[in-house]
Specification:
By secondary structure, this protein is α/β, with parallel strands linked by helices. 27% of the residues lie in helices and 22% in strands. It contains 11 helices and 18 strands.
């Protein structure tokens, strides 16, 4: 591969945003030179005032293949990723069939990627009752860490783990220094809310109170301290848990946290009855709560933002009926991870450096990629994107490369247009729709 010199007036490096020429050789960044540097023999690409960022890393994606490829699949998910500037994804262990709770099932999933791995993809293993003996074999097979639910996952073949199940697994993960990702809701069996207005969003919101999250997070902080296992709380939505999380981190516990774009962009007050495209668990809460999530993200208490892309066909989302009691819970948003967060962040005075930290640098740490991805620095993989941060666009069904044209972001005007995406120095996307396929690799630690 010939040497590429990528020049911009706005290169977002760990030291901040500056004019620079990035030298890319053999798929990696070999040097960052002044913008006027002459690089004999290199192919020069000068993108002017458009910004160059490290590729987005999303460690919370439900690709659903094999078994539920009619919901999404590797081909559509990784095409959408490239168009959205995402260069690495980590696939959740559920919603596919079989679920990733054994080495045999992991190999079935890996085989399903053949011919349709368009960006880098890694895999989380699953923790379910009775699979403790599978944990170390899955580690040896290359999973990046493990995911557990404390409430029903929505999929019967991925049952929730009990405290006893976690106590068996967490010491193993502590020895291997791998994270346990946890869906934190300790739910109570009460379907009384389903007797009320099925189309009411406020009714659905009340059915999953903050207390469910807060009690689950308190339990995980306690187990984290007892076992020394790295605990990662996924999609935090209850601001009530911010103070306990901050206190645990101040004690030095190995605890990290993510929230989702939808909790930062939308507010419950703005969701109309029957708009089941907004249904997710935990739910999108009120503006006062979500403002506190923003403050925690800005303060570093929340480490990063991930989509929890969880798509489903329109009939499962109950778009026609607007029935929140039966609609599948999940937000389809993978392709718009960066512009959604940037649109909301810049309103609050955040910078592109902040967005890089929240979408690339810190997610790379969770996925075990921090030595080679998530930064523009010498020695790092040249997974890069060229972004026009000032240009806006409207999300339409025609733009969406996910399998189904279902998303709460349709008709939203977003800032930040991805012009180019590079994988290891090779251009794999050019706006509007030019894709180079099958250049993804498996992520391992």
């Amino acid at each position: 591969m010939p040497t590429l010199a990528l020049r911009s007036q706005r290169v977002v490096t760990p030291e901040g945003e500056r004019a620079a020429t990035i030298i890319i050789e053999n798929g990696r960044i070999s040097a960052i030179l002044p913008p006027e540097a002459d690089v004999p023999g290199a192919t020069l690409l000068d993108v002017g005032t458009r910004a160059v960022l490290p590729g987005v890393i999303d460690p919370h994606v439900h690709i659903n293949e094999p078994g539920r490829t009619d919901w999404e699949g590797f081909d559509t998910a990784t095409r959408a990723a490239l168009a959205g500037g995402l260069t690495s994804l980590v696939d959740m262990p559920l919603n596919s069939a079989p679920v990733t709770t054994s080495v045999a099932n992991l190999e079935i999933k890996r085989a399903a990627t053949r011919g349709q791995l368009h960006c880098n993809v890694g895999f989380w293993g699953g923790v379910v009752p009775g699979n403790a003996d599978e944990i170390e074999p899955l580690i040896a097979a290359g999973v990046l860490g493990f995911k557990a639910f404390l409430t029903h996952s929505g999929i019967d073949d991925f049952p929730n783990a009990t405290e006893e199940d976690l106590r068996r697994v967490m010491p193993i993960l502590a020895r291997h220094k791998l994270p346990l990702l946890v869906h934190c809701e300790l739910s109570e069996d009460d379907d009384a809310w389903k007797q009320n207005d099925h189309r009411s969003y406020s009714n659905y919101l009340a059915s999953r109170p903050k207390a469910w999250e807060d009690e689950a997070i308190a339990m995980m902080i306690r187990l984290c301290e007892e076992t020394g296992c790295w605990v990662h709380i996924v999609h935090l939505s209850s601001a009530n848990s911010i103070a306990p999380i901050a206190a645990a981190r101040a004690k030095g516990l190995p605890l990290t946290v993510e929230t989702g774009q939808h909790y930062l962009y939308f507010n419950a007050e703005d969701i109309q009855d029957g708009q089941t495209q907004f249904k997710c668990a935990p739910p999108i809460r009120e503006k006062a709560n979500n403002d506190q999530l923003w403050a925690a993200l800005e303060a570093g208490i929340i480490d990063f933002v991930a989509t929890d892309h969880s798509p489903a066909p329109p009939d499962l989302k109950q778009l026609a009926s607007g029935d929140f009691t039966t609609a599948w819970g999940g937000i389809a948003s993978l392709q718009f991870a960066l512009p959604v967060l940037w649109t909301a962040a810049r309103r609050r005075g955040a910078s592109l450096s902040d967005v890089v930290k929240w979408l690339s640098t810190n997610p790379a740490k969770l996925a075990g990629q921090s030595g080679k991805k998530g930064q523009i620095a010498p020695g790092f993989d040249a997974d890069l994107i060229v972004l026009d941060p000032e240009q806006t666009f409207e999300v339409t069904e025609e733009l969406i490369l996910h399998k189904h044209k279902v998303s709460p972001y349709i008709c939203q005007e977003l800032a930040g247009v991805i012009e180019l995406t590079f994988l290891r120095g090779e251009q794999v996307f050019q706006r509007p729709d030019s894709l180079r396929l099958n250049h993804g690799e498996f992520l391992t630690r």
